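Render this sequence as a predicted structure.
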Amino acid sequence: MEKPEQPGVVADALSPDVLFQQVRQLALELHPQLGGSLHVTLDSVLDKELGFDSLSRVELSLRLERAFGVGIPEQALANAETLRELWQALLSAGVTHQGQPSATVRASARLNGLAETPHAVQTLLEMLDWHVQHHPQRPHVHLYGEAEEPELILYSALAEGARTIAAGLQTMGVLPGQTVAIMLPTSRDYLFSFFGILLAGAVPVPIYPPLRPSQLEDHLRRHAGILANAESVLLITMEKAQGVARLLKSQVDVLREVATPAELAAQGTVFTRPAVRSEDIAFLQYTSGSTGAPKGVILTHANLLANIRAMGAAVRADSTDVFVSWLPLYHDMGLIGAWLGSLYFGMPLVLMSPLAFLSRPRRWLWSIHRHGGTLTAAPNFAFELCLSRLHGHDIEGLDLSSLRLAFNGAEPVSPNTLRRFTERFAAYGLRREALAPVYGLAEAAVGLAFPPPERGMLIDRIRRDTFTASGEAVPAADTDPNFLEFVACGQPLPGYQVRIVDVAGRELPERHEGRLQFQGPSATQGYLHNVEATRRLIYGVWRDSGDRAYVAGGDVYLTGRVKDVIIRGGRNIYPYEVEEAVGNIDGVRKGCVAVFGSTDAVAGTERVIVVAETDEPQGAGLEALQSMVQSVAADVLGMPPDEVLLAPPRTVLKTSSGKIRRAAVRELFEAGRIGQLPPGVWWQVVRLAAHSLRPRLRSLWRWFSDTAYALNAHVIFWCLAPLAWLLIAVLPHERWRWFVMRSGARLLFLLARVPLHVAGLENWPKERACVIVSNHSSYLDGIVLVAVLPGPFSFVAKRELSEQLVPRVFLKRIGTLFVDRLDVRRGVSDAQRTGESVKTGRSLMFFPEGTFTRIPGLRTFFMGAFVAAAEAAAPVVPVSVRGTRSILRDNSRFPRRGEVQITIGSPIVTAGTDWAAAVKLRDAARAALLDNLGEGDLTQHRRHD
């Protein structure tokens, strides 16, 4: 008798669309904040991209089995890293008993390329190849030039144009690894040249064309330095700029050739494509030089792709977006943020030149209207230019309702500009939530901190006197007339961290200003051929931004450049506020004001200098304007500036991105090329010299006090910890061990002078076991909870701790349960074991985030605590801990003074024992913790932790 055929899966039932539907549904249950931004592809990583822990995988397996009628082998479920591997496991489960593939297996070859974005590519060239392979005729760029209608550039056209340039470069002798400079305006030639250089295996060096004949000497001097530092062998430029290019060639020995794109295209069409790796340099981004000589930031293909992916995840970008940009392609915000970001996500890019915007700002807004732009970006001055230059008839009928996010970055963001722009264009469909102040720098590729989508601008109003005197950003009352305002520039991108340090490199608490340092996957390895600058940049895993900032509620608040801050009379003075106020005076050219400090050799302190451009002729009108500038600056500073100089147009030098080059203007001033220094008065000199000592003495005392406290805290801990460990290891009764542990914890905080404030003890369930869940901010969290919570209870810890001798002995003696967070088989048994422990009357303490970082905010929760609570029908008690992160941060051994607030929330009762009930418990506990913590929700703009 013939053996009956094993039940296979029909082709109609086993569909990748069903797989994606099931995965998306579960992922949104776990991470509802993702909304429509969730991208599910066969290459999606289960843990890092979708946030599936071991229990989530089990739930996914059950749903797939119900949807497809087949079972996934346990080993396959445990080992699968991507959906593609799960898909192959499903296909294998659908094979007939003869071993012949079903129709579904034969059809699976057509599944390649279903991914919406090129997740697996490792270089910019692979990124372009991916798009050409999948949709060569898809529109890539709508390029506006002289004509009214844009020129359409397809992905296939970009690839073909790049091949032509690459062939010409190789014909002219350019070798892999050599650098080629691009000095072109925004054009198809620029796009083709950039990728052509990459295709030839060379490294692009974007530089900007000369804009003003009056600044030709300065332009040549700066660019000659860039080309010499980069050792560029060839310069691609336009025909009109060849005269300037020849002058550059005469000053740079290594520069062998100057060519136009047309000349390169005429060289030939055959080229050999060298191998390019992810760790190879993708291009050199020279810093704008607003505070000194330009430095070549080394950015690899891996750096760029990591930053683009992180920014895309933060703003939920996809191929349905439309990016509208006039930003120059020689600047990181325009090159990486606008162009390469659009290229990666497959979104159309509407591109125009900076000059087109500057001459007619309305073109920017009307392009958003015409093309349904959803994303755009610009420095603050561009938003201000639209306010000052656009009249009612310029924007009549304008519709900005399609705009999802308008990024404001690359220079200080003005709170007044944000408010006025929102008010002005709200009548034209602009949503307040669309304005998104961001922070980035070339040393991180481009982006570092972005606000959560749909949040809109967040402005911090702080007490001026306290901040300028001590650097502490204390919130000001609404009635306080003496205040400062700073704009939140967002939270670190996924995979990035920031910290604020003092002059000695010690991390500062929240709301204390200092130097901003960062780390992340796109952090540069340094500056090309500049060992000294690289040494000042790198602090272990951290990079110094050169910016001053403070962090509050997880958001970064930029306060100024380190070199721009003026120290006067023991106070910190920030140029931006004064420049903005003076620029609003009638007769002063807006955006053409420089405020800087100039060292007085006699007094040993800094003098405050204001240089403002004006068209006002000599006479009484000029004198009145100077008095007005003096008065306005004094109102903002709280003291009169030392000198006000009114200068003719184009005196105030700027970078290619429009930022004020204060260091360069100061050089002109100190050389006497703007005005003469007035003689100082001896008693003013003495007074200023005395005042300048205050911040130094204050800093020295703070260092001594903080160091003494940290050493004392270490002595106390290492006196108590070994004794407590030994007693817990030998005492026979759990009640005794718990007494020692609690007493030791309380004594530690008492001797270290760390107050513990507890609220909500009345909420503690007294007659039944519960599941306790708490946020995780520091190594101190567990000690704090032992010291204040009614007990005893058992901790639930990651299994890795059981493999270390000292922690294993201690944790086992206090009844800790060890669980595995990712291994599916162990994860299921661990969940069952924790549930049974609760049923027997033992309360369990979970940190559902699993780990902690120095960044404030609540991370993604693992599901183990809530599955255990649901199965045991036990209440979940949310306990929030505030203050431990500021006392002892992640990767820090320098404890600081502080106090801790513990809030015990009301017990949350489960409504069932299934997965849905566990998800409801998690969501309710998370909401309760967020209410009490006062920190941000890090899942709001992150795909994963």
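Summary. Residues 1-14, 95-114, 675-689, 941-945 have pLDDT under 50 and may be disordered. DSSP finds 30 helices and 34 strands in the chain.
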